[in-house]
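lol forgot to send this yesterday, sorry. struct tokens for the thing we talked abt
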């Protein structure tokens, strides 16, 4: 006859296991949300074979410490990794993930935040937030993330020195933890969490050089549907119906992040906002304005549409990430005095961003 353990003993056993750092992959410790999964022994390890899903750690918050796990990668496109210090909805938090199909390339992995449901990899890119690595497709890959207040490091395959060091993006605050699977089936094993081990080694993050002369601040409207921009003759009504008052500022010396103030998928119809600046010109003149955006934009000067573009993921070639930069330019036909430049920026995923500067700022000023 089997006798059930008293609940306090079950709780003690779970807490003892966690204190030993190893978190067994089962439904007592993890909320497993997936299209399908199977707990199996694979390539010498007790593992989970998970398809289109993730493991959410139950009943504990993570602030500082070491997160370790093993991945058995394949060459198919998938993005497994870790999400930590997350809010209750996992819309905001810190992330590191793998791009399995890009082995050996400089963007085969990524450190990035989640900001109001968007992972802006089109903003946080380059050697500051990723590194080249040759992945194994016939054995386990060991991942170790060390988190200490506003800093983090990643170590792959038991290396003694970090592969990447970076400064975290959000307020230092305990939150949820998730081990993310992929868009195709993936094996995950040996998840360990040690909240007492958060020592950093050779913390020397790469710093990007800021772009000089960029617009420092944009005013942002409420969200609306992109289809309202299809008829340029009806722009006045779209503009007049907007609500204003929120502002975004330049970050990373590169761009302003619209998702700081606007949730893309909040139940409200739409995927577009206006980002606005007021330009004061000392005379009637034409000025070249270099700019960048993500994902799509319609530029409107003094009520007239003057440009439309698409900078989304894979829009310019099959490897194009849609990263932000001063890749486009328009000649602004300014009148003497006040000019209103609206950038209607639409987002799908990867970063809701706007940036810009005048090629030659003589004779113009930005009014706040």
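and heres what i got for the seq, position by position
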């Amino acid at each position: 006859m089997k006798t059930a353990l008293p609940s306090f003993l079950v709780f003690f056993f779970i807490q003892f296991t966690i204190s030993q750092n190893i978190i067994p992959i089962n439904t007592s410790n993890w909320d497993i949300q997936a299209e399908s999964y199977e707990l199996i022994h694979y390539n010498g390890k007790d593992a989970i074979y998970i398809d289109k899903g993730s493991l959410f750690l139950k009943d504990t918050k993570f602030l500082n410490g070491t997160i370790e796990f093993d991945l058995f990668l394949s060459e198919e496109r998938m993005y497994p990794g870790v999400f930590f210090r997350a809010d209750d909805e996992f819309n905001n938090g810190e992330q590191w993930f793998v791009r399995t199909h890009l082995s050996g390339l400089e963007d085969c992995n990524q450190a990035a935040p989640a900001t109001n449901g968007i992972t802006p990899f089109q903003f946080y890119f380059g050697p500051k937030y990723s590194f080249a690595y040759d992945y194994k497709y016939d054995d386990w890959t060991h991942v170790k993330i060390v988190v200490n207040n506003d800093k983090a490091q990643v170590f792959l395959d038991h290396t003694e020195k970090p592969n990447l060091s970076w400064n975290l993006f959000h307020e230092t605050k305990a939150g949820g933890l998730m081990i993310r699977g992929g868009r195709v089936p993936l094996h995950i094993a040996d998840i360990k969490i040690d909240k007492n081990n958060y020592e950093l080694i050779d913390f020397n993050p790469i710093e990007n050089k800021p772009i000089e002369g960029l617009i420092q601040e944009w005013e942002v409207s409420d969200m609306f549907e992109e289809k309202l921009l299809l008829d340029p003759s009806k722009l006045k009504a779209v503009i007049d119906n907007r609500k204003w008052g929120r502002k975004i500022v330049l970050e990373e010396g590169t761009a302003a992040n619209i998702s700081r103030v606007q949730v893309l998928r909040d139940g409200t119809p739409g995927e577009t906002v206006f980002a606005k600046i007021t330009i004061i010109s000392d005379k009637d003149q034409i000025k070249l304005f270099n700019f960048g955006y993500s994902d799509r934009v319609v530029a409107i000067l003094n009520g007239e549409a003057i440009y439309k573009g698409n900078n989304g993921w894979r829009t310019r070639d099959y490897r194009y990430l849609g990263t932000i930069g001063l890749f486009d330019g328009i000649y602004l036909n300014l009148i003497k005095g006040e000019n209103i430049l609206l950038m209607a920026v639409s987002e799908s995923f990867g970063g809701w961003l706007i940036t810009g500067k005048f090629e030659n700022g003589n004779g113009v000023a930005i009014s706040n």
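Confidence is low (pLDDT under 50) at residues 1-19. anyway ping me if u want another try
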